Amino acid sequence: MNDGTPAIRTRHLTVSYGLRPALLDVNLDIPQGSLVGILGPNGAGKSTLIKALMGFVKKDVGRVEIMGEPAEKAKGRMAYVPQRSSVDWDFPITVEEVTLMGRYGQIPWYRNPGKKDRDAALKALRAVRMEDFGQRQIGALSGGQQQRVFMARALCQGADILLLDEPFAGVDAVTEKAILSVLKEAREQGLTLVVVHHDLATAASYFDLIALIKQGLVAFGSPEDVLQKELLSEVYEGQMQSFASLPSINSKP
């Protein structure tokens, strides 16, 4: 039940790589059941934010809360879909085996996946329209199909929150539409989804809320409030000419 507690809350979240700051003093409340886009230029800290939420990178200062609990105590409540470029697609593993990885946190080390686990994997593959590919090698799939399999693995985990790093990168328009449909269906089922995204032209129609970042959090709110030319000019310095072609940047289609 949604009691108003944010799905994700950060306070003063700061992360550095050596002497180079990646995130500075990020304070963010992401509501439960929302589909949120993380936007910003290259090097703005978008992927770092996702990794900091997951605990994959060490924060300098600040705190992260998941459903009102410290992130360290909320293991299993978040699932992560990495960028495709970070995955070894030559590893010999099937679609079903990849999806079953989402169950590993719930299976004792001494037991193999059972019927309940395989049923959960099949349900997740159905959700992403990949149930007919269970025995296919992951490396034999198209980029969009691979992305959907990793989404199935995240769904199979049974988490409340999905964090996705550039799920639309490098896929065709048909696949992008299919992935968006899966995300919106997951939101309708009560999941919270946080998506690193790069395309300003589609952001207004894809997301309920948008966090615009450039090391710090520049703006957070509805697409109509965040996708303002003044804010975009501040964040995307020298790139304003590319905004002129955006369709109705301050309104949803």
Series of H and E elements: EEEHEEEHHHEHEHEEHH
* Largest β-sheet summary: 6 strands, mixed
The low-confidence runs, each spanning 5 or more residues with pLDDT under 50, are none
Helices, by number, come to 8
CATH superfamily of one domain: P-loop containing nucleotide triphosphate hydrolases
Q: What would CATH call the architecture of one domain? A: 3-Layer(aba) Sandwich
**SS elements, strand count:** 10
CATH topology group of one domain: Rossmann fold
Percentage beta strand = 15-25%
Overall outline: globular
In the CATH scheme, the class of one domain would be Alpha Beta
Rounded to the nearest angstrom, the distance between the terminal CA atoms is: 31 Å
The helical percent reads: 25-40%
Give me the Rg, rounded. 18 Å
Mean pLDDT comes to 87
Protein name: Metal ABC transporter ATP-binding protein
Pfam family, one: ABC_tran
Keywords: ATP-binding, Nucleotide-binding, Transport
Family: Belongs to the ABC transporter superfamily.
